[in-house]
Specification:
Helix content: over 70%
Shape: globular
Order of helices and strands: HHHHHHHHHHHHHH
Strand content: under 5%
Radius of gyration: 20 Å
Distance between the termini: 10 Å
Structural class: mainly alpha
Largest sheet: none
Number of helices: 14
């Protein structure tokens, strides 16, 4: 079966499952009423905060890339927007592969270095959202509804990202260099990966950690404003729980704009905060329409503006990969 078809079937299947879970015991009329009464001022503020969030993420990615290439901020910003925009349309964050391909075609940066920097970026994001979820549960004493499920998500995510961090840290160590020297056939590509991970052994790591901490201030406020727009005011602990749950839900394969998984995560977190799940579903839908959709449109514009050959090459590569999988 075509690999693309398998991805679509899996994404569509998870969308249906999580939408059903999110809408269980929820009246559609309540969701519609919450959306109809959404405050546009809070929505506008959420969009501005998310733009700030993206600007900070671009700065962090530029810093992560610095050990292998000094790339101008506007180029990094365009590549980041392309990846984030395509992530809303592809399952399991496969837009990151296109982000690396975009860098290769427009700037000539090796795909290996680009993907290594993206792994580092996502690694710190993962640990940050696990921390947000853990701190939120701790401050709330983990006594709300769905606390057990959220605790299990935190533990599973913590183990997953800890394993990735340890693997990256070991890969960039001196022992790996000695091993690569004995295996010339592996040294070329893995040496690039190792050089990209070198940041984990430098003081620049602290800069990345600090910027990541700053990033999640506007990120948390964005979600707080979206929930506020549909009539619910979250406390600090509940907002952190929402950030953790919503961010981790985007790792699950789903349809466009994380349809289904995002609704389920918001409903879960809002129930934990003592609010009605319908408000959570409405806030997630606002996030998709007012935050994720604009990013997807901007990404499409970047790819279309003077980049017809890039789009063709990306599509051709994707088609050839699918054909290879079929053979």
């Amino acid at each position: 079966m075509n690999l693309r078809v398998i991805q679509l079937v899996i994404g569509f299947g998870f969308t249906l499952i999580f939408l059903a879970l999110a809408l269980y015991r929820v009246q559609l009329g309540a969701i519609g009423a919450a959306l109809a009464g959404a405050n546009p001022l809070w929505i506008g503020l959420a969009m501005l905060l998310y733009a700030t969030n993206l600007a900070l993420r671009t700065w962090r990615w530029q810093l992560i890339l610095r050990p292998v290439a000094t790339i101008p901020y506007p180029i990094v910003a365009r590549a980041l927007l392309v990846g984030y925009g395509l992530n809303t349309r592809m399952p399991a964050r496969l837009g990151e592969l296109f982000r690396a391909e975009y860098f290769k075609k427009t700037y000539g940066l090796s795909r290996v270095w680009a993907l290594t920097s993206i792994v580092i970026e996502r690694l710190f994001d993962g640990m940050a959202v696990i921390a947000c979820l853990g701190v939120g549960l701790f401050l709330a004493s983990a006594t709300g509804q769905n606390a057990g499920m959220l605790m299990n998500v935190m533990i599973t995510g913590g183990v997953f990202f800890s394993i990735i961090f340890l693997a990256a840290f070991c890969l960039s160590g001196p022992m790996t260099s000695r091993i690569l020297g004995r295996v010339p056939g592996l040294s070329a590509q893995l040496a690039m990966v190792q050089q990209g991970f070198k940041i984990l052994h430098t003081w620049r790591l602290m800069e990345v950690v600090l910027i990541t901490f700053i990033i999640y201030v506007p990120d948390t406020l964005t979600l707080w404003c979206l929930v506020k727009a549909v009539g619910l005011t979250l406390g600090v602990a509940d907002a952190l729980v929402l950030v953790g749950a919503a961010s981790l839900s985007t790792l699950v394969p789903s349809g466009p704009a994380f349809l289904g998984t995002l609704q389920f995560a918001y409903a879960l977190a809002i129930e934990f905060a003592g609010g009605p799940p319908a408000v959570g579903v409405a806030a997630a839908t606002l996030a998709q329409l007012c935050v994720l959709l604009p990013i997807a449109i901007i990404a499409a514009g970047i790819l279309a503006h003077g980049s017809g050959s890039l789009i063709y090459s990306l599509l051709t590569k994707r088609i050839s990969n699918d054909a290879s999988a079929d053979s």
